[in-house]
């Protein structure tokens, strides 16, 4: 079994109901933050962490994602003809090479664990990453790259974690920590999906970045349902605790919850303010609007 993480799964089968009507005919992963769709941020983060194979688990209405990661000859021709070199470079820059991208359909919306399990044959017997495009992370060193370093050192599973307010534990996978709960890297002793605040073993929650050993597929295979009647990735991960090292990494960076309207809008403002060409204008706009 190769120990380097070369493959990443992007579950993109969700319906995006919170963003209707914007997501009626467009996948939520194609919603733009400034000038890039959410899914492109996730793919670029994976590329920066050394991922070479990109596996999308899709659903209905997701063909625009396939088109986005494909050459667009008409567009490239007309940009070339008009001498728009910068735009042309931007369109070509993030393109994976032929054969680096694979798509499989989830067919039924049975949960995140099920979506990941749908990619089992494409992953095979090697460690892999999972990136949820809804969780957008602004960081100097991309979050997944920080995690790859930890996985290389510990030779085990790694999830990105952050502290959340106790009243929000019912939105996340929550950790039970073994040993020191305050370090950058914490040892995971238990995982619970979306516990009520009163039942949560901590307020340290899993954010949508995972590096997992292929053993997880054996647990997902059983199709046991958990919180919300769904096949949960968290439950399958919980079964791996104790067999191999399993760590949570308090990553360096800022996470935006783009599955939520306010979080998505906040991400747009934050990325626009940090944008090389737009930052100054945007600062003036925000000041004016808040005056
Ligand atoms: C999923 C996972 C949850 C995790 C969260 C991170 O939940 O099931 O464990 O904490 O992503 O964003 P979802 O947001 O899809 O309901």
What is the fold's blueprint, element by element?
Elements: E1 7-11, E2 32-33, E3 36-37, H1 38-48, E4 53-58, H2 63-68, H3 73-81, H4 85-93, E5 101-105, H5 112-117, H6 120-123, E6 128-131, E7 135-138, H7 143-154, E8 157-163, E9 173-178, E10 185-193, E11 204-212, H8 216-220, H9 233-238, E12 246-250, E13 254-257, H10 261-274, H11 279-290
Parallel strand pairs: 1-4, 1-6, 4-5, 8-12
Antiparallel strand pairs: 2-3, 6-11, 7-13, 8-11, 9-10, 10-12
Helix pairs in contact: 10-11
Bound molecules: 1-O-phosphono-alpha-D-glucopyranose.
1-O-phosphono-alpha-D-glucopyranose (G1P) is lined by residues 112, 132, 135, 172-173, 193, 205-208, 232-234, 259.
**Each distinct ligand:** 1-O-phosphono-alpha-D-glucopyranose
Number of helices: 11
Structural class: alpha/beta
CATH topology of the largest domain: Spore Coat Polysaccharide Biosynthesis Protein SpsA, Chain A
Q: Secondary-structure element order, as H and E?
A: EEEHEHHHEHHEEHEEEEHHEEHH
Radius of gyration: 19 Å
How does CATH name the architecture of the largest domain?
A: Alpha-Beta Complex
Tell me the total number of β-strands: 13
Strand order of the largest sheet: 5-4-1-6-11-8-12-10-9
> Largest sheet, if any?
9 strands, mixed
Low-confidence stretches: none
Shape: globular
Mean pLDDT: 93
How many domains is the backbone divided into?
A: 2
Strand content: 15-25%
**End-to-end separation:** 58 Å
Query: CATH superfamily assignment of the largest domain?
Result: Spore Coat Polysaccharide Biosynthesis Protein SpsA, Chain A
Helix content: 25-40%
* The first-level CATH class name of the largest domain: Alpha Beta
């Amino acid at each position: 079994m190769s120990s380097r993480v070369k493959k990443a799964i992007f579950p993109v089968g969700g319906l995006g109901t919170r963003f209707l009507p914007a997501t009626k005919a467009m996948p939520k992963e194609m919603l733009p933050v400034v000038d890039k769709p959410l899914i492109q941020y996730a793919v670029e983060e994976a590329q920066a962490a050394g991922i070479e194979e990109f596996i999308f688990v899709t659903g209905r209405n997701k063909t625009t994602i396939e088109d986005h990661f494909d050459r667009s000859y008409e567009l490239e021709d007309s940009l070339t003809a008009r001498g728009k070199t910068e735009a042309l470079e931007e369109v070509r820059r993030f393109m994976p090479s032929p054969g680096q991208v694979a798509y499989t359909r989830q067919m039924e919306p049975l949960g995140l664990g099920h979506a990941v399990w749908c990619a089992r044959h494409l992953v095979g017997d090697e460690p892999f990453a999972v990136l949820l495009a809804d969780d957008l992370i602004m960081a100097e060193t991309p979050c997944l790259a920080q995690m790859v370093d930890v996985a290389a050192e510990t030779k085990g599973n790694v999830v990105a974690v952050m502290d959340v307010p106790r009243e929000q534990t019912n939105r996340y996978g929550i950790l039970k920590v073994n040993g020191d709960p305050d370090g950058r890297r914490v040892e995971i002793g238990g995982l619970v999906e979306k516990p009520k605040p009163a039942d949560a073993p901590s307020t340290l929650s899993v954010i949508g970045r995972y590096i997992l050993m292929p053993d997880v597929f054996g647990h997902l295979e059983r199709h046991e349902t958990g919180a919300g009647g769904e096949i949960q990735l968290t439950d399958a991960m919980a079964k791996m605790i104790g067999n191999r090292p399993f760590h949570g990494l308090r990553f360096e960076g800022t996470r935006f919850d783009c599955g939520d309207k306010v979080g998505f809008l906040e991400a747009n403002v934050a990325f626009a303010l940090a944008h090389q060409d737009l930052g100054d204008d945007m600062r003036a706009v925000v000041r004016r609007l808040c005056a």
